[in-house]
Amino acid sequence: MSLNVSVNWQRDAFCLQLAQSFPSKGVTALYGPSGCGKTSLLRIVAGLERGAMSNVSFNGVDWQNESLCVPLEKRRIGLVFQEASLLPHLDVRANLEYGWRRTKPAQRRLAPEEIYRMLALESLLQHRTDQLSGGQRQRVALGRALMTSPDLLLLDEPLAALDAVAKRQILPYLARVVRDTETPTLLVTHSTDEVLRLADHIGFMENGSVAPVVRLAEALQDPSSPLFADEGAVSVLQGQFVIEGNGGWGMFSTTSYHLHVRSSPEYMSLHSGSTAFQNHRLQIYARDVSIALTDPTQISIQNHLAAKISGLTEKDDGLVLVRLTLADGQLLMAELTSASVSRLGLILGMPVWALVKSAALLQ
Ligand SMILES: Nc1ncnc2c1ncn2[C@@H]1O[C@H](COP(=O)(O)OP(=O)(O)OP(=O)(O)O)[C@@H](O)[C@H]1O
């Protein structure tokens, strides 16, 4: 069961040409530079580009081929664009209920109260849409898309028009919605941060084509990943987080190891009332990981993980990316100078200790 798309579409000087199967579970990010065709692909999936030569089917049902083009409303898609297009003459509640009323009772999976709670919309319901901030408008737009209980959510850079503060505030809501509603989602984005927080799979786009979709963990194994272009190599570990003390400190655990980490104030307020969280993500920059040959005791770094070296990639800048396989099979990148790699005599298969200086919870 999946979303299958094949397109061969010339528009002026631009050519979109791809045949790709996208997972129908979780979030798939379409990531690529401006002008590579991300929005065009999303519009084809939504049925908004009727002229495009394309075949689209979702979970075995044909949406588009040479003789057929199922309209958007029949595809049961929830769409959210960069700029929220809310109905200006209706208040927030009426905007939200609009989608609910247009959905057949048998197709309603998500209850309005649940959507309001997930997106913290309760206090906004009586507001006029012109009284909302950009971030609030996007939360309402997301809520409105969910009120139709869509089978597929298409998000086209939903946070791109927001400033950094609004983005930071809305991201956790977005993460919660895509996780808790279990609605398969295609997310168009330029942002590595959004990919790391939200994506389960990723398709890298370039010049009108898309590389085979891979799991996020697989994409983060590639030392030359475009995701590392701005901030350097980064790893994402999956595990559970339990708040243990004051100030947001807690334990991030997998089946094989634990890390002491601190959650941010935003994280604490979003999750107030709970102390234990499954399937959470921990982001660790490669530059924040050092390597020791034995487990050091007289050192301020608290998180020491047993690991095995599974990759060594020399970069142009005299640094080496060391890929470490942890005891549960998850991967952690460390960035060392080549002088350190030689001094320690690091080779493939060698058991070492990864010392994690800093880590950030992502959900
Ligand atoms: N209506 C149109 N007519 C002709 N060309 C278009 C039209 N809309 C988009 N294009 C071109 O198609 C190409 C792909 O555009 P598209 O918006 O799909 O890219 P994108 O990856 O989503 O870009 P961005 O990240 O900047 O939104 C671009 O070269 C663009 O100039």
Strand and helix map with partners:
Layout (H helix, E strand, L loop, with lengths): L1 E10 L2 E10 L3 E5 L6 H9 L7 E5 L2 E5 L2 E2 L2 H4 L1 E4 L11 H10 L10 H7 L15 H13 L5 E5 L7 H17 L4 E5 L2 H7 L2 E6 L2 E2 L3 E2 H4 L14 E10 L5 E5 L4 E5 L2 H6 L5 E10 L3 E4 L10 E12 L4 E8 L4 E7 H7 L6 E6 L3 E2 L2
Parallel strand pairs: 3-9, 3-10, 7-8, 8-9
Antiparallel strand pairs: 1-2, 1-4, 4-5, 5-6, 10-11, 10-12, 13-14, 13-16, 14-15, 16-22, 17-21, 18-19, 18-21, 19-20
The structure holds adenosine-5'-triphosphate.
Adenosine-5'-triphosphate (ATP) binds next to α1.
Report on the architecture of this protein.
This protein has 363 residues and is α+β, with helices and mostly antiparallel strands. The protein is 23% helix and 36% strand. It has ten helices and 22 strands. It has helices at 38-46, 72-75, 92-101, 112-118, 134-146, 164-180, 192-198, 216-219, 265-270, 338-344; strands spanning 2-11, 14-23, 27-31, 54-58, 61-65, 68-69, 77-80, 152-156, 185-189, 201-206, 209-210, 214-215, 234-243, 249-253, 258-262, 276-285, 289-292, 303-314, 319-326, 331-337, 351-356, 360-361. Strands 3, 7, 8, 9, 10, 11 and 12 form a seven-stranded mixed beta sheet that branches. A five-stranded antiparallel beta sheet has the order 2-1-4-5-6, with helices on one face. It has a five-stranded antiparallel beta sheet with strand order 15-14-13-16-22, with no helix packed on it. Strand 8 (152-156), helix 6 and strand 9 form a beta-alpha-beta unit. Helix 3 runs parallel beside helix 5 and helix 5 packs parallel to helix 6 (164-180). It is globular and about 65 Å long.
